[in-house]
User: Fold these one by one.
Assistant:
Number 1:
Amino acid sequence: MRSKRGFRWLSLPITASLMLALSGCSSQDFGNGFLPSSSHGVTNHTGPITQFWTTSWVILFGVGFIAWGLMAWALIVYRRRKGETGIPPQLRYNNPIEALFTIVPLILVIGFFILTARTMSDIEKPTVNPDVQIQVIGKQWSWDFNYLHENVYSSGIQVQPEQVTKKVSEMPVLHLPVNKTVELDLSSRDVIHSFWVVQFLYKKDVFPGRWNHEYFTPTKVGVYTGKCAELCGEFHSMMLFRVSVDTPEKYAAYIQSLKDKGQTGQLSINDSRNQNLPGNGSSTGNEG
Ligand SMILES: [Cu+2]
């Protein structure tokens, strides 16, 4: 009877954590490792990234459960009983256990290193002769896009608070044609930013005085959420944008609309960022 009562208190935290884990998450979230389910098949990289993430946390949760289980077992089995006094027997130099907690983490670290290096080198592999090449230039607190092959540009204005909830359509938008290979060349006019498209499951730092590159193929038509992911000053949280993955016709129409507005040529990396002052209502990119 004693042991039955002793373990009853465990049922409460176990039930509570199971309820927490099982409520509010669908089986799709679970299979997706709780990454946004809207990221499914959005680029050629989202599959491998999801797989990498899910594999990692499943293994680490396994390790966690074993460690927590052993801790709970030791706490319960070796707890101080009634009438016990003094320090319990002191043990040291248990070679099998020391070998275990050296070798197992070593295998984990090497395994994760190989997994990471392999996934990253696949994702970072440059595309030779990409179909679309676009310069993405960060500036406090918006983005400029130079479409190199089409020789047009668009220049973003800092998002205003009401746009965050109401006027998504007025945010700067990077247009990409679906199923075409894309190279993005990223740099900054001022401080360090980070180009993050949430559903692409990838961020790339944007540095002044340096060009970084990102290669991928968008594979699903849609509009995706973009943010700056590097704290870059007062209006960092307003440095929002959208990525629109278009059908070939819609992409061509967008490029034509830039030409019609006279936005031909390219914005220089050395342009002033003052085109971005709040209150400048147009997004036609006044080079300064
Ligand atoms: Cu930023």
Note: The pocket of copper (II) ion is lined by residues 138, 193, 228, 230, 232, 236, 239 (CB under 6 Å).
Number 2:
Amino acid sequence: MPEVFIRDMHESDLPAVLEIERISFTVPWSASSFLNELHNLYSITKVAILEDNVIGYICAHHIIDESYILNLAVHPDFRRGGIATKLVKEVLSELEGKGCRFIYLEVRVSNLVARNFYSRLGFKEVGVRKNYYTSPGEDAIIMMREL
Ligand SMILES: CC(C)(COP(=O)(O)OP(=O)(O)OC[C@H]1O[C@@H](n2cnc3c(N)ncnc32)[C@H](O)[C@@H]1OP(=O)(O)O)[C@@H](O)C(=O)NCCC(=O)NCCS
């Protein structure tokens, strides 16, 4: 398989990103949510590219020594190939360089795939946010890892 590489997200990636977002989540982010991240000095937005096509993306945010993964998805045709691992590792190394010490994220209780994925990367389940999600209404598990 040709090599997948990770680079910063550009506005021109948004149509492909929004398509993956729409098939990955019941409450997808809008274009303006992604644009806000693209123009936020404290955000890191990356895409995974295979033969000129966007096949996955990640958005993270940092403030002083804390950081958050806000969004992560891989196109269903390319899941289980290590793409999300590559995206997260790229972000972790950039955040470390910025002096971040902790990284957090929220995930649906029912999203066992993502919970398993993040556990494999050393994230621990540290709390619950009651009724955090809508469509369907659901609690969030808070996961955290030291950098
Ligand atoms: C979660 C998600 C981003 C993982 O992307 P991915 O590129 O398939 O992940 P990777 O290939 O890097 O997986 C690494 C490890 O995570 C675990 N994992 C990933 N998908 C899994 C699945 N369907 N079932 C069980 N474990 C899984 C495995 O341990 C896997 O390692 P292995 O393939 O060697 O067994 C992807 O499934 C996705 O886009 N889901 C929909 C959106 C979402 O839930 N995002 C996260 C919430 S913000």
Note: The longest strand covers residues 53-63.
Number 3:
Amino acid sequence: MIQFAIVGCGHIAKKHVEAIQKAPGAELVAVCDTNPQRLQEYVTEYGIKGYTDLAEMLQDDSIDVVNICTPSGYHAPLAVQAADAGKHIIVEKPIALTLEDADAIIEACQRNGVKLSVVHPNRFRPAIQVLKGAMEEGSFGKLSHANATVRWNRNQEYFDKDPWRGTKALDGGVLMNQAIHNLDLMIWMMGEPEEVSSFSATRLRNIEAEDVSVGVVRFKNGALGVVEAAVTIYPRNLEETLSIFGESGTVKIGGPTANRIETWKMESYSDDKIADLIATIDQDPMGKPGHQCIVEDMVVSIKENREPVVTGEDGKKALRLILALYQSAEENHPVRV
Ligand SMILES: NC(=O)c1ccc[n+]([C@@H]2O[C@H](COP(=O)([O-])OP(=O)(O)OC[C@H]3O[C@@H](n4cnc5c(N)ncnc54)[C@H](O)[C@@H]3O)[C@@H](O)[C@H]2O)c1
């Protein structure tokens, strides 16, 4: 069994617990939180060892992997500390809030010869997997452009739950916290971005970072991209959509969380093949829980000594795009990524 421990016993850590419990070959052995009350809730509910001091937990040689589930601005020091103790790392998104912090995590994992995976679980969604397959087959021909749209609602209550939410130092705004999933997918499909231009605003929520952002991207391959991200949508989540347009293909993956095929037109696919594809996805649009896919992938990557599917460099690519969008919005000019 590969033994896991979690740092940060908050909201998302519950998904990590469930993922570890369900993943074959994985076992949860310990949790850590600086808040004794939150720690106690997890210790009581899951019957595992709890620590308020990470250094103490890291002395446990049986722990193979540490999952970092703290506020985003704290990911780097904790991940580096755990990697330096020889633990493999799964870090929640965003990998970090600065490129320096992302590099510190990547370098610490390389230095210690441990695996690093970033939680971008939407890559494992069935509709996204078939879209990636079509991209890799070259079925779109020459790419025209992509559109990443996140029209969600996070109300003021959500931000008021914890003091770190919506702050620039520990969280970031809609791009860094919510749209990062869709932007990771857009980069995964379209390749690396070269230049961006963006506007951001804080319109409806009482937070420091942006609650709405619009931007455009030029990718290194010459194709273009459009980004619309908001947590201001009344009264609830409307959609998360990723659309890709090429000379011989048009695909729109939509639904509330980019999990349903809304349009699939492709020269090289027969009508029957497309109907089958849509019917299969419709039967199970979410697929296996994404966090479980990330944990299972870590188990296999340790056993087979291969790279995880979502690497630290992947996490850094999404971060780099978002930081360029922020810089463009702040300085009011296009920015090279
Ligand atoms: N992948 C996803 O879909 C997804 C969804 C939600 C949140 N997240 C990410 O997960 C992270 C946590 O978000 P959350 O909503 O669970 O936050 P949260 O506030 O609910 O939980 C964070 C926990 O970390 C603890 N903590 C803070 N500093 C610590 C430290 N130094 N050592 C140990 N514990 C510490 C806090 O006491 C708290 O219990 C963020 O990076 C967020 O972006 C990812």
Note: The CA atoms of residues 301 and 308 lie 6 Å apart.
